[in-house]
Write a structure and sequence with these properties.
This protein is of the alpha/beta class. It has one domain: TIM Barrel, CATH 3.20.20. The strands form 4 sheets. It has an 8-stranded mixed beta sheet. Helix 3 packs across helix 4 and helix 8 runs parallel beside helix 9.
Length: 291
Amino acid sequence: MRQCDVCFRHCQLNEGETGFCAARGFIPGQGIVPLNYGRVTALALDPVEKKPLARFHPGSMILSYGSFGCNLRCPFCQNSDISWSDETFSLSRQAFGESPDSARSEYISPEELAATAEYYRDQGNIGVAFTYNEPLVGYEYVRDAARLVHENGMLNVLVTNGCAELTVLEEILPYIDAMNIDLKGFSDYYYSHVLRGNRKMIMDFIEHAAGNCHVELTTLIVPGENDSEDEMRAMTEWIASLPGGCLIPLHVTRFFPRFHMTDRQATDVRLLYRLANVARERLEHVYTGNC
């Protein structure tokens, strides 16, 4: 049995087993490895504002790479087919010699990804964004590809839930220029019971990342879960307490019913604007999204 040390779960795996995230597994003779290494499920040239990043090379495009797997279980996930679905686990089984017809992914090496980013430079591309699923469950690929992107004089962006050990963050930080990190709420109950995550781990991750690269944060406002003014004040007071925290951009975004939360109404736009104004009591750069 081996232990995975990427996030707080510390999954204990026997040979042939896959971790909670579906992206890491114990392969005989290799140990615990990223099963999703280079397995691309989505590749697109996006505006950098879609990450979302409001204050990092605005007006630019960025090549967005996604794989499969996630270590949270957000019931409103908009990319559930590659994050945590039956198809996600089918994809993970390919690494054990199984290739279900339903599994859809292709392999792209770090060298090929860096070369593709370079190819689109003349279309305004500034580099690569690791996004769509949770990139850090396969951080080895992020590290290897981002290093090559840097060698080509281009930039790297990480879009993440921040649910990873600081040792993982240290592995990739030398090659990451900007991050958008989800700070999904500010209560332990919401993180542990709704998202099945760990709020302290995310907070530690944000604090360390913010001291080492450009960081922007995103909070999706889910009706009945994290939509109180008190919670927004507590969250933004903590953000502001970080070194330079008043200048960290916060994206306050609107929820729409999807996946396992189709029983909720979309966030009232007036509520979203009110919470954004509460955030502005402490932070200088607050943006609303999905309105």
